[in-house]
Amino acid sequence: MTIDRRGLLGLIGAGSVATPAFAAPAQGGAVSFQHGVASGDPDMYSAVFWTRVTPADASGGDIEITLEIASGGDFANIVRTSSGLRARASRDFTVKHDLDGQGLEPATEYFYRFKAGEVVSPVGRVKTLPQGSTADVVLGVASCQLYPGGLFNAYDAMAKEPRLDAVVHLGDYIYEYGAEPDDYGLSTGAALSRIPQPPHEILTLEDYRLRHAQYKSDPDLQAAHARAAFICVWDDHEVANDAWSMGAENHTEATEGAYSERKATALRAYYEWMPIREPKAGLSLDHINRSFEFGDLATLAMVETRLLARNKQLDYATDMPVVDGVPDLAAFNETLNAEDRDLLGEAQRDWLKGVLAASKAANKPWQVLGNQVVMARVMGPDVTKIASKEAINDMLAGLPEEVRAGVGQMIQLFKLGVPFGLDSWDGYPAGRERLYAAFKEAGVQPIVLAGDSHAYWVNELKDAAGERRAAEFGTSAISSPSPGDAVAPLPLGPLLSAKNDEVVFCDQTAKGYILLTLTPERVEAKLQSVSTIMAKPYAARTLSTWVVTRDADGITAPTKL
């Protein structure tokens, strides 16, 4: 289909309503709702409800608002009213209200809105989680939305899905880069007039708040939030590129201050601006791991792989020893396979094993893992075996100057047989084996979801002994540049699937999201893509559909419909 409208910011697919889609314009000192509404972290009886109130005068103090939740879009039957909520200046005038397990019915769709005096917010929809017998669940899976990278057409398409119970967002909700001509995505951002605000790399609390505000000003993202509850986890760019527990590639303490302070600042803004529950008492802001129960059908466990326990990433430029001009692959592999390299840490892994084991004991057919980075073993393709030296040189000559040298170096490295990327689970083989052992001990073969890579993946995950441990569906980016774009016309996706036994399918250029449908018998993943992120209208289509079922040995390998 061809879609030429901006996202639906008010009631979506529920007929005519009297409530305005937008808040009334600020007049005579009135406030406004310029960043839409959102819900998140649903359970059987409640959810988190979020908005941001834009004050007429930011120095005027806190603003009192009311949340209304209704059974229908006309708000004729209001089932819950929460009065006396406050948009506080200390929280950047954001409001996040948790019903805390009370007031709503399971497996029921509700409509909600906020009021500040006579000013009414956009309308949102939320569906509570099911209880008991559950026939099916439909989830959107999204990741990686670079504001200057392109239009958020994929969110507009997602908002128009006929059914969407919740959205699982796997991180890179914002990016930290600035607006210099050579900053990430700025060539596209300049052409589309999507310039990051503030126009510099974000470091302070005000910086992070303003960047979140800019992202939530996008109508398509607002439409997706209004359509369904989001279940979110961060990746690295919510703080800084290639973050790990003690630092980040894109952070220099000598000029940018202590990393711990930047991380705390970024997470404070994240919790203010995202519809997510705060960590339980006694836990630090890093503890974003949590689980959700979808009746007797599935358990969704969201893990944290960035800030709690991740070791520093290895880098070929600095960690690959070179002896007499020859890379020392054996020495590099010894470092790569060190037993202490990990992403989850023991405490989180034990928590996850308990969640999975409990789901198995409850006879739920599916366990789903919301995980940020690709888990499959993916070795880089040896391009020299399929292309002549002349063809490779011609391809390199056609690349942008800023990526040409790096691509050339990787082509030579991949001849050695090294991982395609070191920021993913491939950079932490011992930690991955410990995770697979936890799967085995819990008696499950989960469905793993992955973001971060800006590419679509369908993977069959195996442990070091070659035993199937899980199936993986990786979603592409909403708008962030894909690796395949940088090396076109090289068919990167097919090369990776041909090279790697665990990679069933890979597309390194398409943009979009996954529509994941779970039933007792199978899991179906539709790779939903948009024709362009550079203009409207755009065409939305299903790139391909993949299914995982069960047999006597456990889950099957993903098969294409």
Automatic annotation (TrEMBL):
Transmembrane segments annotated in the record for this chain: none
InterPro entries reported for this sequence: Metallo-depent_PP-like, PhoD-like_MPP, PhoD-like_sf, PhoD_N, Phospholipid_Metab_Enz, TAT_signal
Domain of life: Bacteria
Signal peptide: 1-23
Sorted UniProt keywords: Signal
Phospholipase D N-terminal domain location: 35-128
Keyword Signal: yes
Residues covered by the PhoD-like phosphatase metallophosphatase domain: 139-527
PANTHER family: ALKALINE PHOSPHATASE FAMILY PROTEIN (AFU_ORTHOLOGUE AFUA_5G03860) (PTHR43606:SF2), PHOSPHATASE, PUTATIVE (AFU_ORTHOLOGUE AFUA_6G08710)-RELATED (PTHR43606)
UniProt name for this protein: Alkaline phosphatase
Organism from which the protein derives: Brevundimonas staleyi
